[in-house]
Amino acid sequence: MKNKVVVPDEKQISRRITKNKLAQGIFFLATLFGMVVLATLIIRIFSQGIGYLNIDFLTNYASRRPEDAGIKAALLGTIWVMSITIPVSLILGVGTSIYLEEYAPKNKFTRFIELNLANLAGVPSVVFGLLGLTVFVRLLGMGRSILAGGLTMSLLILPVIVVASKEAIRSIPQEQYEAAYAMGATKWQIIRTVVLPAATPGILTGAILSLSRGVGETASLLMIGAMTFIAYTPTSILDSFTILPIQIFSWASRPQAEFQAVAAAGSIVLLIILILMNSLAIVIRNKYSKRY
Amino acid sequence: MKMNRLAKIGTSLSVALLLAACGNEPTDENDTGTNGDTSDGETSEGIAGSVQVDGSSTVFPILEAVAEEFSIANPEARATIGVSGSGGGFEKFIAGETDMSNASRPIKEEEAALVEEAGIEYTEFQIALDGLSVVVNPENDWVDYLTLEELEMIWGEASGVTTWAEVRDGWPDEEIKLFSPGTDSGTYDYFDEIILDGEQIKRDASLSEDDNVLVQGVQGSTNGLAYFGYAYYAENMDTVKIVPIENSEGEIITPSDETVQDGTYEPLSRPLFIYVKNESMKENETAYEFAKYTLEMAGEMATEVGYVALDDSLYEESLETLEGLK
Fold it and tell me: Which residue range is the domain that position B148 belongs to?
């Protein structure tokens, strides 16, 4: 083994410094581009929509008059859909990830499933919408109901929750398992007392982030017919519904300029909900993360 | 230590559950009087049933306005207006899922056959008119009017015409930029049928399902040319220029409330329809009242959302027909 130390001459050094500066400049511009676009978007939405944002906007139903239009039906629809999506996707998602990580034999079939899960996470949401339309709406006869919408959205975010939960479970140090086994614990005892407590922050963070993707999701629920006018509060999960992003989309395509402003006001509400959900994810991660 | 950790998990889980629990709140807000599926429930104070409507996105703003007023007049009634497009609406109508279907074109023969096969009797009503408007950029000072043949040359793939000069002598030798509603829309169907006889539209035309994008396209391009529903022109009169169209009588007509209503702006005026299920009119009081309300209000609401009302006598005739269905 030769271990020759090459001392660069001054020319080489200055060239390296230039390269470094160039790289720094490029990355800075890349960041700046994103920031400027985002800032423009937010400033535009706020300057356009803030005038329509008041209590009436939250408590009125949609209307043909922009000044009377509100998001009550859409907001309630989003909450109802989420009330189905959250339990279904959490139970199925966490269950799947525990099975895959803890119980499933490590063979080709398991790897095949895991590969497919990762792929499913990248499938366009319209495809899930078509699936929901065929299976839930038509085949199972749920109609264009909150139930069908909630289940479709669960399917949509399930792969992401499974992948995030699997990562969280996998990051638990092997020593923890060994210690538990040494105490004579069964698999279920380990899952209950070691795996779940340690993985919960990671699971919840992943779940909330994918749920906030679900809240902003439009295409899949558009497919199952959530673009509707409703002037009543849903009373059961079999009622028709509409959701915030679709209501915004519907307003944005109107000819009247005032409706563009109403759409912007709706976007502000949606943005606030998303920011709240993402902050919750950060709080949970910081508060409950365990360091080994 | 252990308890502490469990407590923390408990807290984080309950946060998640809290999110879920929020969803149940709306249940408490409901008026105790409302009942989920009283499709033909009759109460002494107003109607409390439900009516399902679906169909064209073009007609939707009118039905939305009607449903809004209907809900105010009958707070217990539940009117659901879906947007599946004219064809999608008929699909649900055939499946018996809706009481009323709205459409921006008449029902097609094959759809009518399927409805009949399903044993559903229906009645067609016109509720408003829409004048498809052809517009150019305000800086375009050469186009004074267009004939149907010229429109066909401009929009048809077969003609090979790409510049203004090829359309009429003396017009600039510049390429025309075309903007058209997307192929899923009834607007596209209607224009394609009337102007191009169903032939292929120019392949390099920019298509968009959002008519506002078409408006912006023409605003931003001196050689732009687009067509869309009258409402979109009415909202953008200052920034796009309307093109008068020569009708079959050889008259050059600009679309307006008057020319669309009296039928002189043709053939680009199109009627908007509702199709009601006769059985629902008989058996579901809410559906009947809603249809009646639609015919009574359609003229006023159509004008308010940017369409053109029919002559009053036509609504009265329709109302009589509807009365006969009850």
Answer: 133-267
